[in-house]
Amino acid sequence: MRNYLILLAAIAFTSSAQADPFAGGDPKAGKRLVEKYCVACHARSHGGDGSAIYTRPDRRVKSAQGLLSQIRICNTNLGLKWFEEEELHVARYLNDKYYHFEQ
């Protein structure tokens, strides 16, 4: 019986992790970071409010892992010095708003 409960818990954890790849991220904190650090750069490179970078047909980001990788590239290239949790907040916000990736 104990092994059965452990198996059920593992399945439940795996299922919830797959549904939201950025479950630990705070979308409100992510939105603040995007507005403060990302919008102006994206607007310069893609026009308008900068959101076209997320919605264009030839976008680079095609997976949850790709989204996190791109955020890390921007963090490094721009010298933002975000912690991993801040990257996760941004990923959660962008995924909720634009991408809707599942793990």
Short structural summary:
With 103 residues, this protein is mostly helical.
Which terms summarize this structure?
103 residues, mainly alpha, 5 helices, globular
Which helices and strands occur, and which strands form pairs?
Blueprint (H helix, E strand, L loop, with lengths): L1 H18 L7 H20 L5 H4 L8 H15 L5 H16 L4
Helix pairs in contact: 2-5, 4-5
Shape: globular
> How would you characterize the largest beta sheet?
none
Q: Note the quaternary state here.
A: single chain
Uncertain spans, ≥5 residues at pLDDT below 50?
Answer: none
Helix percent reads over 70%
Number of individual domains: 1
Mean pLDDT: 87
**How many helices?**
5
Rg, Cα atoms, Å? 16 Å
Distance between the termini: 30 Å
> What share of residues are in beta strands?
under 5%
The helix/strand series, from N terminus to C terminus, equals: HHHHH
Structural class: mainly alpha
Give the beta-strand count. Answer: 0
Descriptive report:
- This protein has helices spanning 2-19, 27-46, 52-55, 64-78, 84-99.
- It is mainly alpha-helical and 103 residues long.
- The protein has one domain (2-99).
- The chain is globular, with a radius of gyration of 16 Å.
- The chain starts with a helix and ends with a helix.
